[in-house]
Amino acid sequence: MDLPPELHSALLGRRVTFLRGRLDDSQANTVIAELLLVSRIDPGKPIEVYLDSPGGSLSAALSVYDVVQTLGAPVSITCMGTAGGASVLVLAGGGAGRRYALPHARIHLTEEDVSVSGAKPTELEEAGRLRARWHAALAKHIGHSAAQLARDLASNRWLSAAEARDYGLVDGIIPGTPHRN
């Protein structure tokens, strides 16, 4: 995200970071570095991530997700705009009770293409394993079976903020009320 350096620094000082645009290795590295930096400054203090990403690389999403899961600080993730494909895992992987969507956010449940440079059996197998890890991690946070999730991803389903809350991807809508259990 191209912010003036002083604004970027001020937001990081307040433990706020952004994941905007296509999620690739470079974007993931930046977000991971920022998360690690602010988590070390005051361990255990909450961190906020604002997400607006149409998706991208499954391996990049799994990297960000793994760091969020292991930080030791509560991570609040708010979808502003769109969360799609691989980035849906980042959204769903926020801290329990700390996953949000803004009222006009849209969440796109869709499969990501997994790039393989050739049709070698080992590359195809690894692509399948990568997709299975992404599915398993996502299913863990949404309260739906892997089979239901696979059907929903295959259908290219778009969800409003309220539908994402009811589906289990977010806990609440800002401003709004938390998920009704």
Notes on the structure:
With 181 residues, the chain is of the alpha/beta class. It has one domain (5-173): 2-enoyl-CoA Hydratase, Chain A, domain 1 (Alpha-Beta Complex). Helices cover 46% and strands 19% of the residues. The protein has 7 helices and 7 strands; from the N terminus they run H-E-H-E-H-E-H-E-E-H-H-E-H-E. It has helices at 5-13, 25-41, 58-70, 87-92, 121-142, 146-154, 161-167; strands at 16-20, 47-53, 75-84, 99-101, 106-109, 157-160, 172-173. Strands 1, 2, 3, 4, 5, 6 and 7 form a 7-stranded mixed sheet that branches. Strand 2 (47-53), helix 3 (58-70) and strand 3 form a beta-alpha-beta unit. Helix 2 runs parallel beside helix 3 (58-70) and helix 3 (58-70) packs across helix 5 (121-142). The longest helix has 22 residues, at 121-142. It is globular. The termini are far apart. The mean pLDDT is 90.
Please render the helix and strand layout as text.
Blueprint: H1 5-13, E1 16-20, H2 25-41, E2 47-53, H3 58-70, E3 75-84, H4 87-92, E4 99-101, E5 106-109, H5 121-142, H6 146-154, E6 157-160, H7 161-167, E7 172-173
Parallel strand pairs: 1-2, 2-3, 3-4, 3-5, 4-7
Antiparallel strand pairs: 5-6
Helix pairs in contact: 2-3, 3-5
Q: Mean pLDDT, rounded to whole units?
A: 90
Q: Approximately how much beta-strand content do the residues carry?
A: 15-25%
Relevant CATH superfamily: 2-enoyl-CoA Hydratase, Chain A, domain 1
Radius of gyration: 16 Å
Count of helical regions:
7
What is the level 1 CATH name?
Alpha Beta
For the record, give the distance between the C-alpha atoms at the N and C termini, rounded to a whole number.
36 Å
Shape: globular
Largest sheet: 7 strands, mixed
Percent helix, as a range, is 40-55%
Domain module count: 1
Quaternary structure classification = single chain
List SSEs in N-to-C order. Answer: HEHEHEHEEHHEHE
Examine the coordinates and then state which fold CATH places here, giving the name of the CATH topology.
2-enoyl-CoA Hydratase, Chain A, domain 1
Structural class: alpha/beta
Runs with pLDDT <50, length 5+?
A: none
Just name the CATH architecture: Alpha-Beta Complex
| Number of beta-strand segments | 7
